[in-house]
Amino acid sequence: MYYINDKRLNPNPITKFLVVVLLGFTVLHSINHYLEVAVVLTISIMYFMNGFRREAIKNILVFGVLFFVPSFSALAKLPIFIMMMLSLPAIFRMFYLPFAAGEFMIKTSDVGSIISSMDALKIPKEVSIPIAVMFRFFPSFVEEKNSIKMAMKIRGIETKNPVKYLEYVAVPLLIISSNIADDISKAAETRCIANPIKKTRYVSVRIHLIDFIYAVTISVIVAGGIICSH
Amino acid sequence: MLTLENLSLFYEQDKKILDCINLTVADGECILLTGESGSGKSSIINSINGLAFEYENAKISGSLKVDNRELKGMELYEISLLISSVFQNPKTHFFNVDTTLELLFYLENIGLSKQEMESRIEDMLKLFPIKHLLGRSIFELSGGEKQILCVAACYISGCKIIVLDEPSSNLDDKYIDILKEMLQILKNKGITLIIAEHRIYYLTDVADRIITVKNGKLGVELTKTNLLNNERLRELGLRSATKTDLKVQRNSVGNDLTVKKLEYNFKDGSGLKIDDISFGLGNIYGITGKNGCGKSTFIRVMTGLDDKGKSEIIFNGKILNKKDRLKNSSLVMQDVNHQLFTDSVEEEIKLGVKDLSQDRLDKVLYGLELTEFKDRHPMSLSGGQKQRVAIASVLCKNSKFIFFDEPTSGMDYKNMIRISKLIKEMSTEDNIIFIVSHDIEFLNETADSILCLEEFTTPASKNESNRIIYY
């Protein structure tokens, strides 16, 4: 076991997915602001324990800014110009909690454990393999996207107009995305991912104490928040 | 035993890529397939590992057998149980982000027990000292480290046949030596190796047979005397069969652009520290150094793209801040797909350039043989043509500082000479060209002076001593 990083502080992907769904409810029933802060802090602590310090701090900072964006009901009372300016951040704020939990899930889950947890749930391979490939896609995508941004900067392409920006970034991004997808599936297929025999796992996906702590903390906050708001 | 019998490969109806290939490879033999770009050597590799039909929609006639089992019509995973592949770009090779999990992934998929997995890893570590690469994220590894991990993964898989498609094209000297050593070890273990490569100097001792490929057909078998005749190799489009030494002078000439200070710290604790180096207008500088020594960082700081490092750069007596540098620099990236943004070649070249006359544009297009592709979508062009489009846009921007990041990676002799000529033509009394490259033959051909970045790196506190012992 000595070559593998310790996984006891990292909840398994199923728990992380359940938390994302749970936090999805907060989009429909907004919960108390202080409870929202508690959720964000919980996620940051989880990041921190798994050695993702930058993500932990970024999570708090982003929410710190969004915290001051008024909700839609408050927004309706403001002058139309300000309303237009703030409506996009307001939407982002509405979805921030499930988004943050989703980001945590993607950044801290490896493909192997995702496949084995889906195996544990008896999800068929036709579904589980594409999902695993999707997960693997994100980190590569981010890396390639940064290169494109660099190229735009040095070409002196103005990035202030969002429509033009999308137009320029779309072409290389689409081409590169399809290349990444091809590369990842080639890597997976030449590693016999489609082999129909029963597979073994070096690190079995178990439920640790951390799974309970993470799931229960978030459930209590969300449930408490929804009950209090009624 | 691997046998190819009358193997032909087609894309679409009539585009014949391989033409009646007959080849028998005995167990434990090492075959080197060599030839210029587009000769079909990679297609032979992709036919053997099955990727050609699965991913490139190629059709095949003839037969491909491993120990009398026909590979044609097998599923990819069935072929992968017999044959392991190493690709040109190690980026392509990884499905997991964690390196240990990547090594284990194949073993998990063939259903080995945990004990068996552990013993295979131990066994591999005895052969290849790469313990320091385990348990890391692939995004932290240098190209060379990734490639040796790929080779180790092939060994762990237990496949008796390994095919390699230009494995050295992204490696520096040090990693090419390591790769050679690893291949020799694999060969001694009785593993059959089939390598497609146009850089052959490092394989002359390992390979049992060196076979040329031309226009989709197998050509002559090269003997040791052929290998010493550079003229003959050039005719075949091959690089030298002996290791070339850097012949360009080290001492920097000129004093127009001065890097007073450039400091950058990497995550692992090592760093890049440059004091007082000057560059002169009208010169071409080669920037070398081993994989991972900070060559890309050097480009990012010099062009003003990176705002993390400390830097003080002076041009003609004036300090250039990051914005000035960004305005005065151009970059041709290693993967040009990142830097093509519009839907026609002409638009692409005009993008971001003010006051470009049609006359100048036509001249540049003509000079780079791009006139006929003027209205084509840049992404529909071949790799070499895309690179020329990127160069054309750089030429029109008229930058003072022009940077190339590994412009010849994976290029055969002919294309390398072509790009070298292009770069030399670009050099004027009004610009400085920097080329980051580990292609010695290319630098000898092109550069006026060399800056080796390895001399400016500060070591990481404790890991460095390990690195020397390990790969």
Describe, in plain words, how this protein is organized in 3D.
The complex is a heterodimer of chains A (230) and B (471). By secondary structure, chain A is mostly helical. Helices cover 73% and strands 0% of the residues of chain A. Chain A is built from 10 helices and no strands. In chain A, helix 1 runs antiparallel to helix 6 (96-108), helix 2 runs parallel beside helix 6 and helix 7 (111-120) runs antiparallel to helix 8. Chain A is flat and about 65 Å long. The relative contact order of chain A is 0.17. Mean pLDDT of chain B is 86; it is low at 462-470. The radius of gyration of chain B is 24 Å and the shape is globular. With 471 residues, chain B is of the alpha/beta class. Chains A and B meet through helix 8 and helix 9 of A and helix 2, helix 3, helix 4, helix 5 and strand 16 of B.
Work out the radius of gyration of chain B.
24 Å
The oligomeric state of the chains shown is heterodimer
Strand content of chain B: 15-25%
Distance between the ends of chain B: 32 Å
User: Care to count the β-strands of chain A?
Assistant: 0
* SSE series of chain A: HHHHHHHHHH
Strand count of chain B: 20
Low-pLDDT runs of chain A: none
Describe the structure using short key phrases.
heterodimer; A: 230 residues; mainly alpha; 10 helices; flat; B: 471 residues; alpha/beta; six-stranded mixed beta sheet; five-stranded antiparallel beta sheet; 17 helices; 20 strands; 34% helix; disordered C terminus
In short:
Chain A has 230 residues and is mostly helical. Helices cover 73% and strands 0% of the residues of chain A. Chain A has 10 helices and no strands.
Question: How is the topology of this model organized?
Answer:
The complex is a heterodimer of chains A (230) and B (471).
Chain A: H1 13-28, H2 33-49, H3 53-66, H4 72-75, H5 80-94, H6 96-108, H7 111-120, H8 125-155, H9 162-189, H10 209-229
Helix pairs in contact in A: 1-6, 1-10, 2-3, 2-6, 2-10, 7-8, 8-9
Chain B: E1 2-11, E2 15-25, E3 30-34, H1 41-48, H2 51-56, E4 58-66, E5 69-70, H3 76-80, E6 83-86, H4 99-109, H5 114-127, H6 143-157, E7 161-165, H7 173-188, E8 192-196, E9 209-214, E10 217-222, H8 224-228, H9 230-235, E11 257-265, E12 271-279, E13 284-288, H10 295-302, E14 310-315, E15 318-320, H11 322-328, E16 329-332, H12 345-350, H13 358-367, H14 383-397, E17 401-405, H15 413-426, E18 432-436, H16 440-446, E19 449-452, E20 457-458, H17 463-469
Parallel strand pairs in B: 3-8, 3-9, 6-7, 7-8, 13-18, 13-19, 16-17, 17-18
Antiparallel strand pairs in B: 1-2, 1-4, 4-5, 9-10, 11-12, 11-14, 12-20, 14-15
Helix pairs in contact in B: 4-6, 6-7, 13-14, 15-16
